[in-house]
Every structure is written in C-alpha cells, then in structure tokens.
Amino acid sequence: MAAATRTKDEARARIRECIAATPGLTAGQVGHALGMRSNAMRQLKAMLYDAEVIAVPTWRPEMGRDVSTWHVAPPGTVPPPRPEPDPLAEVRKRDRDTAARRERRAKASGKPAPFSSLQGTAVPVRRLSDPACAGADPALFFPPAEGETPADRRRRLRLATSFCDVCPVRSACYRGAVERAEPWGVFGGVDFTPVQGARRKAS
What we know:
Blueprint: H1 2-21, H2 27-33, H3 41-49, E1 53-60, E2 65-72, H4 89-109, H5 150-164, H6 170-180, E3 186-187, E4 190-191
C-alpha cells in the first residue's frame, strides 16, 4: 500500500513539473511528454479535485472546439466539488477490461483487433494524439445494433464526420482502419459500414 502511494505521489510530482515547465498543455501532450501509454487525463482530474492543478478551456481552431489545458494551481485554489459516484462506472470498467483482453489476444496472434469489435465501449483513441473525437459519443461512429433508417444514418454520419473534418490525425485514423480491415464504423471521415447496393464512400 505504501509503495502504491509513493508511486502515485511520484507520478503527480512528474506531472506538476511538466506543466510548471510548459503551462497550457493538453492531457494528451502531458502524457506524450512523460512517455505515458495514454493521455494523463485520469491523473490530472484526480489532481484537479485535490487543488493541485487547474483546467482552463482553450479554443483550438485546428480541432474546432475548446479543449482543457492544464496549469499548476495557484496557492489558495479552492478545488471543484467532486462528482457524485457514477452507477455505470463499474459497467464501463468491465467494458474496458474486456476490450483490453481482446487487444492482448489480438496482439498475441499478431493481428490487430478491429476497434469496431468493441461496440459499447468508448471510441479507442490511445494510438492517436489528440483526435477530435476524443470526447465524442461513440454511438455517432458505429451503426446501432437494431438498425437505422437512411435518414437517421445520414444524420448520424453528418455529426460523426463533423469531428473528422477538423481532426488533426484524420489521415492516420483512416490508414489504421484500412490496416485493421475495419468491418464497420466511421474512421477518418469514411464510413466503413457496408451499404447494400452501394460502395462505402467518404463523406
């Protein structure tokens, strides 16, 4: 227990040093700077509720939206109230664990697991740096299991590709989907879902 606490404190100290040296980084940039496997959002949010850091919304024209940039909290900062426990958190954790097991099996077999095989979990973005869809609703990018009308599909694709249109990693997202032979879903502005009597096309 003491070792785990020490490791957590060391990780927080590294994050504080990073954003003190370069204020205004995003969670993805912090994670990249520290050599983390993914972005540092989870650690930064925990530090936010302990008044160690503050998040400042900043407009990023290349992404077409506000993003949270992080700074060391000045002395006397009052932390925001902690959110109420999420009753669905355990469900999401189970989904993430399932996705991780699938990815480990795929890696052992030498073949990447299609992201779209993980329907119901958050859009996996850890292989890309600051994609525009990081906070988007995953349901926009994959067709519903119960099917959808052509009008609903067009509406969903318009919303999904609005993220792709301003995404700084659009090309990499598309190339990765082609390499993984994605069977369905929107990647890099292209709908990979087969449409009867038509070829898939870029929006």
